[in-house]
Each structure stands twice: as C-alpha cells, then as structure tokens.
Write a structure and sequence with these properties.
This protein is mainly beta and 78 residues long. It is 6% helix and 15% strand. The longest helix has 5 residues. It starts with 13 loop residues before the first strand and ends in a 14-residue tail after the last strand.
Length: 78
C-alpha cells in the first residue's frame, strides 16, 4: 500500500483505508470520499475535485476514484 507517493501512473487510482476505533466490534456501514486540491479545502470538507457522496457499503479496499481527470505534477488530498 502506498503512503504519500511522489507519483502514480494511473488516472483512476484505487483507494483503500483501514477503520480504526478504540471500541470493540466496530464495523464500517458507509463511506464518503472527498478529494480536494488543498489541505485547507479538505479540512473544510470542500471537495473541489471529487465527492463520492455517502455510499452505503462496508468496502474499504480498492475503491476506484471516479472524479475529475487527475492532472500530472499535482498534489491531491483525500
């Protein structure tokens, strides 16, 4: 799994995450992916690149990016 890669060679990367909780028996019931062009926008929940909307699913691996075409030499935050 890549963490903070310098670059990727696909325009529709697959995203994965790991659920963390201090409680026992916690399961994911839905997710929402927000992709922003700046950390400040991401922290304000401004999805100027892509907002998946709330998806009812326990899937947390290999979720395909489905937003605007990603540009070369650009940093994205999700």
């Amino acid at each position: 799994m890549l963490q903070n890669p310098l670059g990727i060679d696909v325009q529709k990367p697959r995203l994965s995450w790991q659920l963390e909780s201090r409680q026992r028996n916690v399961v994911q019931q839905s997710y929402q992916i927000i992709v922003s062009s700046s950390l400040q926008k991401l922290q304000s929940n401004v999805a100027d690149v892509w907002n998946s909307g709330v998806i009812t699913s326990s899937q947390s691996a290999q979720v395909q990016y489905a937003g605007k075409t990603l540009q070369s030499a650009t940093t994205y935050y999700w």
